[in-house]
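In this section we walk through a basic example: taking a raw amino acid sequence and producing a predicted 3D structure, encoded as discrete structure tokens. The instruction is simple. Fold the sequence below.
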Amino acid sequence: MHVNNLRSDALEIFNYAVRNSLPDSAVEKALSTWKLPQKIILVAIGKAAWRMAHAAVTSLSDREISGAVITKYGHSQGPIGKLQIFEAGHPISDENTILGTKYVLEITESLTSADCVLFLVSGGGSALFEAPLSRIPIDEIVRLNKQLLESGAKINEVNAIRKRFSLVKGGRFAEHCKPASIYQIILSDVVGDDLSSIASGPAIVDVSNAENVKSIIRRYNLTIPDVILQSIQSEMPKKLDNVKTLVTGSVRELCKYAINKANEMGYDTHLLTDSLGGEARDASDMLYKQIKRIKEGMFVCEKPCALIMGGETTVTIRGSGMGGRSQEMALYAAQLLSGCKGVTVLAAGSDGTDGPTDAAGGIIDGETWERLKQMNINPKEMLDNNDSYNALKKCSGLVFTGPTGTNVNDLVVALVL
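The resulting token sequence is shown next.
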């Protein structure tokens, strides 16, 4: 098998896993378990919001549905019935985030116990569904979110802070909708399916407290404006008796589909983890050690071999370049695997966007690092500057899918001859 075949195989495995993780059938199945009334207010947030809303409206074609979809720029695919479609900033909120969220708060104002809200939640909702407490300026929110995302903090830690200065996070949206019933379908993008972390849990009771949040601030040496520090002490809803929740989709299923496809293609496939976390470079280190063991005959597997990992890493930003966690992982893996023959590694996000870029992730082999050097490019310098996007772009190492319509974490596929 030629190394070019490894590249095309890795892409095929990734694309198959993502296609089979689309939320359409899962949303339809979830809706079949509930008897919803004739009139429904639908609110969909996150990077998979348009796809989830489209599936719901199609499935409930005999109902009278109004409401809104708030998704990332480029992630909507046209009108859906009577729903208002908003595209907004991600991973940093912007004025359209506030505009869309205020519209949702307006249409869910003064509801009665006879009203029904169908709430469709997917990853990215933390940035896309936001209305700050009245005393906090939006520019302070933007600055803090940028600082949080560059700190290396885990997503549950980031969201624990975000909830404290929001009108809609940490169960506050569900509180706002009372006494109406909320039927919530969550497409999980959080390792371990911690519901309070997915989109910062707008209809989930917050499990953190003020002391937890203060310890996170100290741990990452965050600079928090006084106006936001004051909000940390604010009370969060402790009981939500108006919410019914179903969770669908997960990184475990994404990995399962990747394993099935790799096996079908003739690879001896091994799942290393479906709860990948920590720094992206540490994940590359772990993967490199397993590939090295295979090459040295210390890892029992038939060749060709496929290693699968799923989850979500972080990157502590120290440079001024452009990239995302999957691209960073791929470029660092290229350094570790430089000169290693018969190896291809793909790391990409299931939503089709990795960090603030238009790429889903990166794909490298044992020649990538040296290939960059031969082009008079210093890959180490670019890696140190967190400029993985531009480095991988130079050597055709970026993975492009466009918005996929789902969001169930990241997938890593390593193929070894």
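Looking at the output, two observations stand out. The longest helix spans residues 3-19. The longest strand covers residues 64-72. In the next section we compare this with other chains.
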